[in-house]
Structure formats: C-alpha cells, structure tokens
Amino acid sequence: MNVSNIDKAVALLNSIETGDAEAIKYVDPDQYTQHNLAVANGLKGFGELLQALPENTARVNVVRAFCDGDYVVCHVDYNFFGPKVGFDIFRFENGLIVEHWDNLTEKASAKNPSGHTQIDGSTEIIDREKTAENKQRAASFIETILIGGHLDKITDYINPGASNYIQHSSVMGDGIENLQAAIEQMAQQGSPMTYTKNHKVLGEGNFTLGVSEGEFAGNHVAYYDLLRLDNNMIVEHWGAIETIPPESEWKNSNGKFGNL
Predict the structure, then answer these.
(1) Domain hosting residue 58, numbered range
(2) Which end of the chain is more exposed for a tag (fewer CB within 10 A), N or C?
(3) Are residues 139 and 231 in the same domain?
(4) Is the domain of 88 the same as that of 188?
(5) How far is residue 104's CA from residue 79's CA, in Å, rounded to a whole number?
(6) 14: domain CATH number?
(7) What are the residues whose beta carbons fall under 8 Å from the beta carbon of 256, sequence distance 6 or more?
(8) What is the distance between the alpha carbons of residues 224 and 166, in angstroms, rounded to a whole number?
(9) What tens digit of pLDDT does each residue of 142-169 get?
(10) For residues 171 and 116, what is the distance between their CA atoms, to the nearest angstrom?
C-alpha cells in the first residue's frame, strides 16, 4: 500500500507521543539532517531528544498538513517539554525523510481578543490550481509589508474590516486595524517586530507558510507565518516566533534556515 509523504510525516510526529518505533522507517538514517538547534544531528540526536522527554508527558495533535513537492508542512499542537504550538517541515528524497526544520512557541492559556486560539480555524485545502499564485502573493506580502514596512500598501493584500482577516496570534484581535496598531505599539515601546529576510514560502492550494528571519524584542528570531488566502487576498493568519540561540549553544551546525 502506498503511504503518502504527509502520512509518513504525521506518523513520525505521532510517534513522539505513542512511542511507535515503526515510524522511524520513514527516515533515511544516513542522510537525516536536523535544523532544530537544540537537537543533535541525525537519528541519534532525535533518539536522545525522545529519551529526555519526561515519561508519558508528550502529546501531539497535527491540526493541519500540506505538501509542496518534496516538502511536507505540519501545524502541530504539542505538549513537548510543556504546552507548545508550532510548525514542522520535512523534506523527502526517494520517499524518505532526509531533513527537518521546525519553529515552536509557547501555547497561550487563553483565547486572543477575538476569541481565537493559536490553532483553531479553517483546515480544508482548496484551490490547488492556485498554489503558485498564492505562494507568490504570500512572498510579495512578506517582502512588501513585513520586510519593507510599507503598511500603506497593506490593503493590497488584506481587505479592511475585522470579518475579512482572522488572526490567531494570542495577543492580537481580528482585522488589519489591530495588526497595524500592534505593529505601531511594539515599535513605540522599543520592541519592534522586524523582518529582515524571507528564506522560503511553501504552499498547497489556499495555504502558504512563510519562513523568515528577523528581530523581536531585541532577540534574533525565526518567524513562521501560515496564511490562508481566498480570491487573491489573505484572510487568516497563524504564526510561531522562536528565539534563535547564540551559535555557542547549538547542538548541530546545520543552521536554523540551512538549505531552505
């Protein structure tokens, strides 16, 4: 029976909770490259991580998953050394996982001002024929608005009004008005959210994931932004921001964004 790359990625993630050793067969033991800087490279590093987890504490719920060529993206609700939400990216060669990137953030204990959690919302993948177009739109939004800072052009990508932009950030409400206000407030408080480089945009149909680098509250960070598009406009956002540790603390030398 053919097993899709998405099913393989989900099985590997679920094995963190279940301990199913069968899922490791989906990983190439000779090529597996790890970009989580807190984990040593290769299958050995992955095994050491699992052994370090307090017994019976791990929980994994893959809420969204999509495929872009040799890449699979998973949006995951975790209990992984504490409650977290984040994204995992797997790259496949010849049907096996050869590379992994991720970005995790603490799970909020309460809903955001508009009543959303970090993981609820739409999950259905549609408009697959628009994948390339939607990826280009997401890349343009990141370059123009998030990196370029041209907030005056935000309505080229998001329609005004709270009902036209659903926000899953734990601290922001719906609508571009709240997004603009939050960006301006953070800048005024001396903790600007700065994007400096976009490394990759992956997508399938109406979902795209942007992997970017920047600064937040004085820290070097990775930004993962999941965007849902409808009729060429961004209508929903989920994200995860993770601080990148200094190189002296890395457990592998592959880099947070290596090979993306």
Answers:
(1) 5-109
(2) N
(3) yes
(4) no
(5) 11
(6) 3.10.450.50
(7) 35, 37, 101, 213, 222, 244
(8) 17
(9) 999 999 999 899 999 999 999 999 999 9
(10) 10
Is residue 149 within 8 A of residue 244, CB to CB? The reply is: no
Answer whether residue 59 is part of any domain. yes
Tell me the per-residue pLDDT of 47-102, one tens digit each, with 9 for 90 and over. Answer: 999 999 999 999 999 999 999 999 999 999 999 999 999 999 999 999 999 999 99
- Determine how β-strand 33-34 pairs with β-strand 207-216: unpaired
Structural domain total, the chain:
2
From residue 92, alpha-carbon distances to 4, 17, 156, 234 in Å are 11, 22, 35, 29
Residues 227 and 134 in one domain: yes
Residue with tokens 């890395």: 250
pTM score of the predicted model? 0.97
Cα 92 from Cα 70, distance rounded (Å): 5
Give the pairing type, strands 207-216 and 193-204: antiparallel
Q: What percent of the chain has pLDDT over 70?
A: 100
Shared domain check, 135 and 95: no
In terms of Cα–Cα distance, which of 26, 29, 58, 25 is closest to 41?
Answer: 29
The mean per-residue pLDDT over the stretch 176-184 comes to 88
Are both 135 and 235 inside the same structural domain? Answer: yes
Query: In which residue are the tokens 């990216």 written?
Result: 89
